[in-house]
Amino acid sequence: MLSSQGRTCKLWFHKKEGRIRDLDFLYSSKDFPDLEVGDVLEVYHKEEQFSRLLVQVSRLVEDFLPKQGNTVSVDEALAATFHLKNYGDVIVRKVPLALVSLDLLELSFKEQYVSSSDCFRLRKVLLRKCVQMNKKIEYCGIRVMVQEMHKGGERVACGYVDESTRVVFRSNSALVYIMIQMSLEMWEFDNQGDLYSEKCIDGFLPDLFKKWKEKSCSHFVSIVLFSRWFYTPEAVNGSPDSVRKHLLTNHRGEVYQDFYHLIVHNEQYEDWQPVLSKRFGLSPAKNSTAVYGNFLETLNIPLNFFTKHYLNRSFERTGQLAIVISPGSGVFHVEPALAMLTKMRSIECGTPVDLVCLGEQPFHVVPLFVFDGDDQNSDSLPSADAAKCDEQYMVPHWMNTSYYNPVKHGSSIVNVRSRIKIPNSVLEAPVCVQLKPPEVTSTVSGKNELPDFDKYDSALFADQVSVGLYSLSRKVTPSCSPRTNRRFRRRDRSVDLSLIGCPVRRKLSTRSTGPTGLNPLDIADTRFPCGSSESANGFSLEGVDSTRLLLPENVEVSDGQLIDPFSPAGHSVPISADRRRWIHVFPVDSFGFSKQPHHFYCGSSVIKAPYSSAERKVLPTFGQAFPNVETLASDGLGKEFVWAWGPTGEECWNPEIEVCVDWKSLTLPACLPITTDFFPDLETLRNDYYVSEHSILLDESVKDAWQSVGDFRADIFGELICQRLQRGFQIIQTDTELLHSAKTTILSNVGVPEYECFLGENCTYHRLALIGQTVYVSKFLPRQNTHFAECQYYYLLQGPDVPTYNACSTIFQLDRLGGINWSFLDNMIIMRGEGEDFRLTGELECFECRFMLVPFDQSANEHVLNSQNPRCDSFFKTKKNGELSYLDSVNKFVKFMEILNRLRRTSAALPAEPRKPNSYSITSEDVLLAAAFRFLSITSSHSQLPSRMIVSAAFVHWLLDNAKEIVNKQQAVAFGQRLVSMGKIRPVRTDRQCTFEYGFILYHAPGDGSKEKTGYDLSSIVEVRVVAPPTVPYRIRDSTRDRCAKELRNFRIDFDPNRRSDRKEWGQVRVGDSYDSNLAYEISMRWVVGTSSLVGDLVHNWWRKSISLGLNLVPVPIDPFVMPENPDSDPFRNPIFVPLNEAIVGSLSIQSRLSLLYHILDRFGFLPMNCFEHGRRPEFIHSSGGMLVTFSSDSLGYLWTWNPMVGLRYRSQLVTGDAQFQDKILHDLQRFCEDHEQRLSLFLQENHTVLELGKPVAS
């Protein structure tokens, strides 16, 4: 029996392989008879007190019988991590689970997509398990590694995961936007004598990229420079209309333009240092300062792309991060309506926002939003007195702030670092500047008498402080009033608005009656026109009314978000859903408070710093004594109020706190936690919410569809939770009494549930309960939803390889989950999508990705790669639609479809025998068919399929080689139709009973054993017909086609053929109904029930095998050329215009120019992606997969864009090339279209007949 002091044993090492591949610890039942499965043991050397290993008893290995007693064995890799010595003496001690339970566990993963539902399932696997540092865990194809563990405010090397452990998932491969504010300060010097631009380009970015390299990060990165330029009215009125229409004006009357320079876009590099050699910089002329820059607009642009994360789903990245680098100190003058819209969008889509300030950290609260007083009658630029107008302040708690201060002067004798930048007016002023109080006088002796400075300060600020504190005419503030011991009621909220030195605008003093988290500010926003076509460009001058309301007039304003930046200790706010959305990401200290480790106090992190007296009197309620540890250590349970400052709300502000760089967040961004601890109280639910319910009966038909090994009801219940997590919901872990009172008082179905779960997404909550054979779903929805109008934003954008700025516009809007039909989605999940009624559509926010299957020309790729200035118009020289080339492309496609359908050719196992061409006659059908099935038969593990099948295209090609009377494809197809009519062969699918079609169509011979059926209606078998190449390569209309070559059909697909998952994975694959060797073949997928890693592994396996066939499966955007004005697009996508030489092609007809554009792309290796008859516009993809092209609207050139979906996992040097390969093709295409060396002119002369210049196009 193990005592509390432990037992001394001899230590062995073992390798985790064979029967013990899942065991970290082996022991003998003779030595430890009292050990049970699940017990946690501590193993350590007596002399090593700080290197202790925790292992868990998984199961007993009966044949572990060491020669001597008191012997245990530990996995050798684990032992090496904890510096254990083989054959040494160790102490083995059983420890209580509560003593070693972790507060926080951080897991990281790389180059894979892990959805929130995958995180939930992985967390369930880790519960009641021991984890150690750097431990690698694999589950259902998900590969994660233990990154960090925290317990009691300390980092630990191992621990136990229980229900209270916060599990945080961090990504090494995220979608990162680095946005650098090129404001006026970038050309100023910091306190160390460096330009802020140097501090960014030569300091912070190299340090960041070095951290990425140390952590083996492979982020998809976009780097953007942004700035705002102001103009005087005289300059504006003298500008041409082409310039005026792109100008904007704000509520102060300032006229400006916003500029964005995209350095790199969605690139994935192993080494980012070469990027620093690119041109960074904007002209500082007329530039704004960081305070008045386009900060919020810049944040909203990537949010347009982040909100649609389920579309264009990449399997190589997880998570998203917006990094804003500013030369300022974290203070921004913003417009309240846009601030609230940005906050709601950032919180709802779960995007972390990191602000990195290059300036000095001020002594007030940061980050800080300043709301200026409205000057609606201003017709010109504000004067210098504009800064004296009324101001209000808000702390954006949804932003994480860092201050970058490189240590470059380590040998300096100066130990004090100034945090105040002396204004230029003081440095440049004459000697008459008074730097001492006026009361300082000189005595007769000439010596100065020092006054009482404290008395002087008190007298000087007495009036301003009294105005700030007592001019509000409010009730007693919460900081000094007792509170009843209940949950916060929304209608009674009243927060101190002490704005020291700044009179408070009463316009914002009304209280909101809506649900928590819906507090938009009813402030005029003149920059974003909405609802009307007037002033569509947002520009207002010379008599044009510039006051336009962004929000409806009936939206009430919440004042609880305003704060006094110099005295934030007096501002505490009730907890709400938005304040607690990210709370489970942060580690907790020994008292249970969530804090940020990159905040330092007295040289140590605040996680370890002692509490000040100010912190001891606020949490969890105002005016109460500091609670005991047990109350605070339970994930915030019982807390009613938090600090208004900071992302956690549980860290008291102190001007002595030094904010450093949060390298962890910038290097390994966290995913949205799957748990939270907020749920509204009963009174809020009664007053501000209504309940919508539906139920689902789990009868025998559902049981048969699921075919679960265990309790199918539990599997269904878990899947319904997963679907909500995938759409931004979080599992609520809070006081059970609060949840119980809510359901018993408000809900009708109050039976005792076997399984129950509460979930929340901002201000929407769901309760799932399984009672008997019925799942009850209750939805708590806000009675009054605040609707933000669509805001149109105009800006100038310069993309990579684009020489100039182009005028663009986009729309900022708030996307909510109200459009999802949860009843339909739940029923579809339960029925596994069976039937035509349950079709995956975009309204369900299902995951969706798109691929193009294209051939590649390896010899042409090598020519471009190995040449300095190659000519790139030599792709597919041998293609030319020859018969042999056509049959070869069909054979490659057939082999790929066999891979897609998981079919295997049985002829590969047959002994080799000499083949005799034309050795069979079509008059002997039985002999010919027997030989064909012998050489062409394929089989599948699918239980419903026949044991032997043939593919129609392979059968046709075999007939051309082996049948005497057949000399062309048409005769072979006719013979196949005769066999079908005679009943010699039959289609596998029921919808092809009497036809023989050329393509990947499966046929079988009648009487094929016990599996013989009249037909096989299998929705999971993908069949595609092959069509002949068109008679004319390019037509606006092609009458030779009977059906559209790009018509898509839906099929079911099993994402887990190897059964690696603990559930049945399914989805839909949409493929082209027919294959044309001159077109890219489209394959797209949608799914809601699928482990993302398994789906990604399946697709990558398709890509790997397609390369061996001479094909390239390329991921592409769903809409490659969606313009920035579309709210679903990425506003930073800016196609490159490649014009044709208008002097040469200007006289050609529209049809001739279109034909010319097509033939040029064909020479450069591009294939059409869509059908010309039914596509919105002709779109093309390069055979390497990295470049996309379409025709310009005037047919005088191309719009070129890079394929943002191709990551490192889908790159092969000889197939996809590299960045230089793509640049060479773009450069040569530009030279060709410019008629460099008369290449365009010669091409027109050589192909005059083919292009049919001047001839009408047949309809």
TrEMBL record:
Cellular component terms (Gene Ontology): GATOR1 complex; lysosomal membrane
Gene3D superfamilies for the chain: Winged helix-like DNA-binding domain superfamily/Winged helix DNA-binding domain
Domain DEP positions: 950-1008
GO biological process, one term: cellular response to amino acid starvation
Gene Ontology MF annotations: GTPase activator activity
PROSITE patterns: DEP
UniProt xrefs under PANTHER family: DEP DOMAIN CONTAINING PROTEIN 5, GATOR COMPLEX PROTEIN DEPDC5
Protein name as it appears in the record: DEP domain-containing protein
Annotated source species: Trichuris muris
Organism taxonomic ancestry: Eukaryota, Metazoa, Ecdysozoa, Nematoda, Enoplea
